[in-house]
């Protein structure tokens, strides 16, 4: 019995290692949140994130601090553990007609995901027309069936928001 | 009543005028303290901010990290850097070394190309350098140079994935 239980644990661990997305799949919502820097500009219940596998990638949908939902599909990149929105191939004429790349200095928001150390970290970075920086980092870690969220926002003045919250499964 | 209001408006202090880019042009020398994980070093700074092209500017600086507070001892380190910024869409963007084979459009921040820009905020000139590292973490470096009566005050922070790992604060004076 002990052998089979041990084997089960090993299999689970091996599965988790092989599939780092599995612990994060689902829709997650906070019931309470603690801000150690700044003030959360929304209710704790507004901290919602939904993560779904999408082929070899990941589809993420989350509520932004400014309100509204953002949804992005991420694909594996040449960098291990780093996922990013797919970039269209430049093709033969790419030298003359380059594809629309995520360039924050041209008003595009840069988003990417990092999967490492049992955590899923979702990043968002943008630069306003006047040069103001907004840099968000949402680190999620599995904890006893829930996810623990460490949310940080930085701007040019430094860290302006740091929130920790426990996210519980909300629906499938 | 209108006369009283007009008088009050006249008596109100004028808001301080924001600095123009030209106000930063000049040569500065000074000292700074570097704090990296609790290890503190002192350095000498030599900064030049100058116009570049029609509307751009150039910042070049030399840092000399001291040994036991001196610059005439073995182990002293000297570092020279220069960045050129050009106006683009309301902000200043670092001029990248474009080649016939690689234009600015080909730069990809998610493949590790640095994103560098500058902005003016009142009396402060902020310069940012942002890069997504190979493992997906980010590094952000921000220089804040603030005009003072004597010269420029400098604050620098290097942030690795959300945590400050290096902080520099220093003071300079204008040099003739």
Please name the two chains that share the biggest interface, counting residues whose Cβ lies under 8 Å from a Cβ on the partner chain: A-B, 39 and 35 residues
Number of helices of chain B: 1
Distance between the termini of chain B: 53 Å
Number of DSSP strands of chain A?
10
Number of helices of chain A: 1
Radius of gyration of chain A over alpha carbons? 18 Å
What would you note in describing this structure?
The complex is a heterodimer of chains A (172) and B (176). With 172 residues, chain A is mainly beta. Chain A is built from 1 helix and 10 strands. Chain A has one helix at residues 2-18, and strands at 26-37, 48-54, 57-63, 69-76, 82-84, 110-116, 119-127, 133-143, 146-155, 158-169. In chain A, strands 1-2-3-4-5-6-7-8-9-10 form a 10-stranded antiparallel β-barrel. By secondary structure, chain B is mainly beta. Chain B contains 1 helix and 10 strands, in the order H-E-E-E-E-E-E-E-E-E-E. Chain B has one helix at residues 2-11; strands spanning 26-36, 39-52, 56-65, 77-88, 91-94, 115-121, 124-132, 138-147, 152-160, 163-175. Chain B has a 10-stranded antiparallel beta barrel. The longest helix of chain B is centred in the first third of the chain and has 10 residues, at 2-11. Chain B is globular and about 50 Å long. The mean pLDDT of chain B is 87. Chain A binds chain B through residues 77-82, 84, 87, 95, 98, 101-107, 110, 112-116, 121, 123, 125, 127, 129-133, 135, 137, 152, 154, 156, 158-159, and chain B through 88-93, 103, 105-111, 115, 117-121, 126, 128, 130, 132, 134-138, 140, 142, 157, 159, 161-162.
């Amino acid at each position: 019995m002990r052998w089979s239980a041990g084997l089960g644990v090993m299999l689970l661990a091996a599965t988790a290692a092989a599939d780092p997305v599995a612990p994060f799949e689902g829709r997650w919502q906070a019931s309470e949140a603690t801000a150690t820097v700044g003030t959360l500009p929304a209710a704790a219940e507004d901290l919602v994130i939904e993560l779904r596998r999408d082929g070899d990638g990941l589809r993420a949908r989350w509520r932004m601090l400014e309100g509204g939902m953002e949804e992005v599909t991420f694909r594996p990149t040449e960098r291990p553990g780093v996922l990013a929105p797919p970039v269209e191939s430049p093709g033969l004429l790419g030298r003359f007609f380059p594809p629309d790349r995520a360039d924050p200095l041209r008003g595009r928001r840069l988003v990417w995901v990092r999967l490492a150390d049992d955590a899923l970290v979702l990043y968002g970075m943008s630069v306003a027309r006047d040069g103001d920086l907004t840099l968000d980092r949402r680190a999620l870690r599995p904890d006893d069936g829930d996810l623990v969220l460490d949310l940080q926002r930085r701007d040019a003045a430094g860290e302006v928001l740091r929130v920790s919250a426990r996210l519980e499964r909300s629906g499938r | 009543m209108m006369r009283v209001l007009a008088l009050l408006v006249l008596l109100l202090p004028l808001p301080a005028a924001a600095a123009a880019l030209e106000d930063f042009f000049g040569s500065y020398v000074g000292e700074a303290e570097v704090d990296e994980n609790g290890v503190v070093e002192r350095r000498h700074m030599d900064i030049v901010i100058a116009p570049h092209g029609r509307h751009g500017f150039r910042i070049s600086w030399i840092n000399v990290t001291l040994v036991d507070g001196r610059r005439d001892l073995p182990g002293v380190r000297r570092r020279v850097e220069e960045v050129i910024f050009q106006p683009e869409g309301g902000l200043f963007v670092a001029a990248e070394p474009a080649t016939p084979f690689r234009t600015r459009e080909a730069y990809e921040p998610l493949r590790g190309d640095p994103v560098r820009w500058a902005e003016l905020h009142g009396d402060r000139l902020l310069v940012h350098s942002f890069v997504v590292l190979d493992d997906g973490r980010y590094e952000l470096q921000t220089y804040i140079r603030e005009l003072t009566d004597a010269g420029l005050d400098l604050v620098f922070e290097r942030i690795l994935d959300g945590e400050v790992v290096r902080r520099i604060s220093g003071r300079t004076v204008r040099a003739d």
